[in-house]
Amino acid sequence: SGMWINGAPDGFQVMDVNATGAAHAAGLQAGDVITAVDGQPAASIAIYDLRARLRNDEPGKVVAFQVRRGSESRSVRVALRDQI
Q1: Other C-beta atoms within 10 Å of 67: how many?
Q2: By the 8 A CB rule, do 1 and 80 touch?
Q3: Do 11 and 42 form a contact (C-beta atoms < 8 A)?
Q4: Is 13 in contact with 33 (CB distance < 8 Å)?
Q5: What is the distance between the alpha carbons of residues 49 and 31, in angstroms, rounded to a whole number?
Q6: Using the 8-state DSSP alphabet, how is residue 50 labeled?
Q7: Dihedral, CA of residue 43, residue 48, residue 52 and residue 53, to nearest 10
Q8: How many whole angstroms separate alpha carbon 30 and alpha carbon 1?
Q9: Residues 6+ positions from 74 with CB-CB distance below 8 Å
Q10: Is the dihedral of CA 39, 54, 8, 46 positive or negative?
Q11: 61 near 80, Cβ under 8 Å?
Q12: Which pick of 10, 12, 64, 71 has the fewest CB atoms within 10 Å?
């Protein structure tokens, strides 16, 4: 996905985004908070499970995120890529 996430009280906070990664292409930015993943509340997902999924799912797989940036919430679809 080309992003680094850490746990947050209501999901996952995007800490960094690689400028050539899929997350950047989808419009994610450092500071965004992921509140849902494929319709599932992010707070119910273990961070190691999401990290493994983003790392191991096949390139082209689309992951749908609900993202909060400041007071705005929006849907973002990230098509995973091979980053190596």
Answers
A1: 22
A2: yes
A3: yes
A4: yes
A5: 21
A6: H
A7: -10
A8: 13
A9: 66, 67
A10: positive
A11: yes
A12: 71
Copy the structure tokens of residue 51. 């990290």
Distance from C-alpha of 2 to C-alpha of 39, rounded to nearest angstrom: 21
Q: Give the helix/strand (H/E) hosting 3.
A: strand 3-8
**Amino acid at site 80:** L
- In total, the chain counts a number of residues equal to 84
Contacts of 40 (CB under 8 A, 6+ apart): none
Q: Do 13 and 31 meet the contact criterion of CB atoms below 8 Å apart?
A: yes
* Beta-bridge partners for 78: 63
Q: With a cut of 50, which residues of the chain have pLDDT below it?
A: none
Extract the tokens encoding 12. 């996952």
Q: Give the residue among 57, 80, 64 at the shortest CA–CA distance from 1.
A: 80
